[in-house]
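Obj.: predict assembly geometry.
Materials: sequence records (below).
Method: joint structure prediction, all chains together.
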Amino acid sequence: MGAAPLLSVSHLSKNFGGVQAMQDVSFELKEGELLGLIGPNGSGKTTAVNLITGFVRPSEGEIFFQGRDITGMAPYKIVRQGIARTFQMVKPFYQLPAYKNMIIPLYSPRVRDTVGGRYGDRDAVALDLLEEVGFERDAMVAYKPAGALPQGYLKRLELAKAIALNPALMILDELFSGLSLAEVAGIVPIIEKLRMQGKTIIMIEHRLKELFRIADRVMVLNYGEKIAEGRAAEVMESDAVKKAYLGGE
Amino acid sequence: MEKRKERVDRGIKARASGIFALTSWREMLYLAAPRLLPVLLFLILPLVLGTYWQKVLLSLGVFALLAISWDILAQAGMISLGQALFFGTGAYLAGIMNHYWGWHPLITMPLAAGFGGLICTLCLLPVLRLRGIYFSMVTLIIPLMLVRIVEATKIFGGTEGLTGITPLPSKWLELYLIMAVMLAALFGFRRMLSSDYGLVLKGINDNDRSVINAGINIYLFKAQALFISSAVGAFCGAFMTHVYMFVGMPVFALDYSILPIAAAVVGGPGTLAGATLGACILVPLSEILRGIGGLRIVIYGLALVVFIVALPEGIFHYIQRKYNQFERWVEVE
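Observations (raw C-alpha cells):
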C-alpha cells in the first residue's frame, strides 16, 4: 500500500445557478479503504459522486485519481481510468435476460481485451460474474428476464456491472436502499469479499447501521459542506452531525 | 367456468449456449423457413412480374432499404425525420460523378454510398449530443435547407437538375442488384444488431448513462450507426438516380423521410424485418390505389391508421408471435 492517496479531492465546489450544491469539500482516500458517505437528503452526496465520475463538471476544485488529474474529464474516460459506479435508480434492460445485461460493461475498452470477443465468450464471463454476486447458477436466475427479478437481484446485477469493469475504485450509490434486511445481509459479504481483493470503495448510504459495520471511515455532508469526518462512532457524537440529522437551532 | 388464453412456446427447447440440437427435417424447416421464404420470394418475383410491377418492385426495394436504414438509427436512439438527407446526398453525388466526370454507374453507386455516408455523418456530428425530438428536428430541417440552396445558387443544374445520367446496363441488373442489396442489408444488419455490438447500440437507446458508465464512448457508437444508416440511404439515392437517369431537387422531398418511418411503424420497429415487411405492404398498396384517383391519399391514410390501431406492436411482431407460440383456451379454477 503506497503512501500516495488513490483519490484526492481538493476544494471541490459546484453551483447549479444559485444553488450551492457542493462547497469547498476536500478529502483523500487510501488504497483499500472503505469510505462511507452520509448526510441528510439533498446534502450533496450524489452530487459528489457525479463530480468525481465526471457526469457533472465542478465549478471549482481538483480531483486526482492515481496521481492523474481527472477534473472535468469525460465520464467514459474516467471509467477507463478505473472508477466504476452504481446508480441509485437501477434501470436494467427489462426484457433481456439478466446475464445479457452484463454484455455492455464487458464490451468496455477497459476489459474488452481480457474477456475475449468471440461469439458467446462474453456470455460465459457474464454468468461467472453473476454467480459471484449471488445469482445461483442451479436455479437459472441469470437466465430470467431482468424485469422478472426482485429488487435484491437487480441491485446485485448493478453491483456485478461495476465489478465487471475491474475498477480500482468503486462508488456504490445507495446500494442498500429499497432492500429488506435479509437482502442487505446477503450483499454485505460480497462487499467484504471485494475489500479482501483490495478494492477501494466509497459507499453512499442511508442505512447507517449496516454501513458502520463495514466502513473504515465516514464523511458527513450537509448542504454541500463537509461537517465531519472520521471513525463512525466519533462522527456520530459530533454536535454538527447531531444537529444536521436531528435538527435544532 | 371462466376461460383464459394460454400461450405456449412452439420453439425448439434443446438449446445450450447458442447451439441448437436439431433432430428432424421438420425442426430444421421450422427454423429455416422464415429466412428462406423471403429470399426465394424476392429472387423469383422479378421473373414473374410485368414491366410495370417490376418498376414497383424497384421502388419497394428502395423504400425497404430506407426503412431499414431508419430502423438502425432508431435502435441506437436517434429518431430521424430526414432520410431524404441521406437519399438526396447519395443521389446528387452519383449524379455529379456521372454527369460531370462520366463515371460508370457501378463505380458511382458504391462511391456515393461511402462518401454520402461520410458527408451525412459529418453533417450531423455536431447534433449527436441532442436527444429525442431535438435530434429529429435538425434532421427534418437540413434536407429542406439543401433544396433551397440548390434552388437559390443554381448549382448542379439548379431547378432543372442534372439530366442524361447513364442507366444501369440492363433491367435485370437493376432488379437483382436492389433485391440483393436489400436482402443483404436485412440479414446482415439483423445479425449485427443481435450481436454484442448491437446490444451496445440498443443500450444507448435504452439508458445511455449506463452505457457511458461502462467506459464506452457513446458518440463514437452513435456516429458509427449514423454512418451505416446514411450510407444505406445514400446508396438508395444513387441507385434511383441511375434508374430515373435524372437527379434534381425532388430527391430531398419529404416522401423519402416519411414513407420509411410509416413502413417501419406499420411493420414493427426494432427488427429490420418489420421495416421491410412494412415497405412490402405500403408501396404496392399505394400503387393499387393509384387507380381510384383523388381519394387515394385518404384511403392510404386510413389504411395506415387501421394498421397502427389494430396492431400497435407492428405486423412483424404479431406474425412472429403467432409463428413461435400457439394459443389454447384453458379453464381458470
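Conclusions so far: The mean pLDDT of chain A is 87.
To do: check interface contacts against the pulldown list.
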